[in-house]
Design a protein that fits this description.
235 residues, alpha/beta, TIM Barrel, eight-stranded parallel barrel, 10 helices, 41% helix, 15% strand, globular, binds orotidine-5'-monophosphate, lyase, OMPdeCOase_dom
Length: 235
Amino acid sequence: MRMHRAQPSLYVALDFPDRAAAENLVAQLDPADCGLKVGKELFTRAGPELVRSLVDRGFAVFLDLKFHDIPHTVAQACRAASDLGVSLVNVHASGGRAMLAAARAAIPPGTDAPALIAVTVLTSMTEADLVDIGVNRPLADQVSALARLSCEAGLDGVVCSAWEATAMRSVFVQPDPVIVTPGIRPAGSALDDQSRVMTPEEAIQAGATSIVVGRPITRAQDPASVAHEIARSIR
Ligand SMILES: O=C(O)c1cc(=O)[nH]c(=O)n1[C@@H]1O[C@H](COP(=O)(O)O)[C@@H](O)[C@H]1O
């Protein structure tokens, strides 16, 4: 039995500079097509009140604040996130075993609890970036090691690039891990600052359970139609 809220196949990243711009897109979206991701920029501008209001409108909300701090602080932040009624919460796996365990203890599994997942290696990073921060093993090995740690701490899944999605299935012992893949680019769209990218269809075929799409939607001439088309392509 699933021990967290259901997850949509598509989360649209509401990476907008203000609430009005976010609301303009949200008004054109259907909770049956997609969930909404509120990240650091919009949360810092618009805060928990916006998150609650999106939840009240029936959207699954991914509160993407990537907590990474001492265990007590992360636990308290996770509890606050869960209290907002969101469907998905993330922390950085590199915060370590004790921090992951504290996050898990703060959000006990339950059908009404948000899924709790850990970011492995950011989709913007390359192997050279890992060397810069003192990680000398192959990127895929680092992702798998952090996913294993997250699994051992009892988390529900991971954030990784679609390139690593297939491997996550063998790392996680639970039958239905939540595998969230940002770094999604429909064929022909700009990479922006992403490094490890795939198209929506490829990511789902590789084993992603939810994809996250931001700029290919938010910077499109007609964001709602691009969101609808992506949702349709992975249905
Ligand atoms: O946790 C995330 O959502 C995340 C993890 C990661 O490794 N890479 C990544 O891009 N993200 C987020 O996913 C979104 C991707 O946006 P676009 O690159 O515009 O599609 C951004 O809001 C990022 O903060």
